Amino acid sequence: MTTILSPASKKTRKTRTNARARHESLVALAFIAPACLGFIVFYLFPMMRGVQISFTDWDLLTAPKWVGLDNYTTLLADTHFHNALLITATYVVVNISTQTAAGFGIALLMQRISQSTLVRSLLLVPWLVPNVTIAVITLFILDPNVGLLNHLMGYIGVGPIAFYGNPDIAIITVALVNSWRNMGYTALLIFAGMQIIPKMVYEAAELDGASTLRTTFSITLPLIRPVLVMVVVVSMIGSFQIFDTVAVATKGGPIGSTRVIYFYIYEKAFQQGQMGYAAAMAVALLIIILAMTLLQLRLTRATETDLD
Q1: What CA–CA distances, in Å, run from 163 to 92, 147, 172, 249, 253?
Q2: CA angle (295, 232, 109) in 5-degree steps
Q3: Which of 68, 129, 229, 273 is exposed most, by the fewest CB atoms within 10 A?
Q4: pLDDT digits over 263-302, tens only?
């Protein structure tokens, strides 16, 4: 039996629906308001202020002097800036490739061997330790004279190796140290993405006689592409901002082999008093990261999934 509502009843129901929608909108705004406020105060306003400073010559002590595009013109010819970008790019490639590969391998092991909450908690322990602490610990572990790693390598006739002191491998060492710190967190993100894959897909592949390797590359990797893209993009953004490990472990050395872009910005701003020029480098880095992020999202089709 169909219930026929009078015009007054329809109007009342519509009013209640609109009121409920307004209430839900207000509740949603109340929840996101602190995050929006924090973004405006700690990100948006400092970013706008940084862009403004980049057009000035300012030593932090006297009044800023407007110089227009002079800082950006100097930036284009600054070989130290170009070298810092190259060193940072080396760090990013090594860090992201090793971190993502190790995280994916750990996630596969968790999927097939153990999904224990304890195991997942232990994986997060290195990620919870601050970068500064990790840098101090690895200074002792990798020390060529008293370091534990060199001591163990001595038993097989290798070493000693100055991991942080050799300009040929210093930036790779920094990248691998941070890769070790973050791979557990990366593994948990990838593991979470694996949980959305229907088990019937794996069962069908097993019935067809697909090996573990074939299943991994033909099913798991394609179906978790959006998660992998997110992990790579977030890792890339974080990798470009590497500073603390370098500041504690190598201070940009030896002979500038670990002077990443953030450390070079720090030197210009707070050691040489060229805040305007440092701000121009920060703006250039922002543009580079934004462009690379958009390019990655476009090329990897991050919004699409093969589950559909």
Answers
A1: 18, 10, 9, 11, 12
A2: 150
A3: 68
A4: 999 999 999 999 999 999 999 999 999 999 888 888 776 5
The structure tokens listed for 281 are: 């480098």
pLDDT of residue 261: 94
Separation of first and last alpha carbons in the chain: 38
Angle of CA points 74, 43, 39, to nearest 5°: 160
Q: In 3D, which of 257, 252, 250 has the Cα closest to residue 136?
A: 250
CA nearest to 247, candidates 227, 265, 230, 231: 265
**DSSP label of 57:** E
Strand segments, DSSP code E, in the chain are 56-57, 65-66
Q: Kindly tell me the burial class for residue 202, based on how many C-beta atoms sit within 10 Å of its own C-beta (0-12, 13-18, 19 or more).
A: middle
List, in order, residues 6 or more apart from 29 with CB less than 8 Å away. none
Phi, psi (degrees; rounded to nearest 5) at 116 = -65, 140
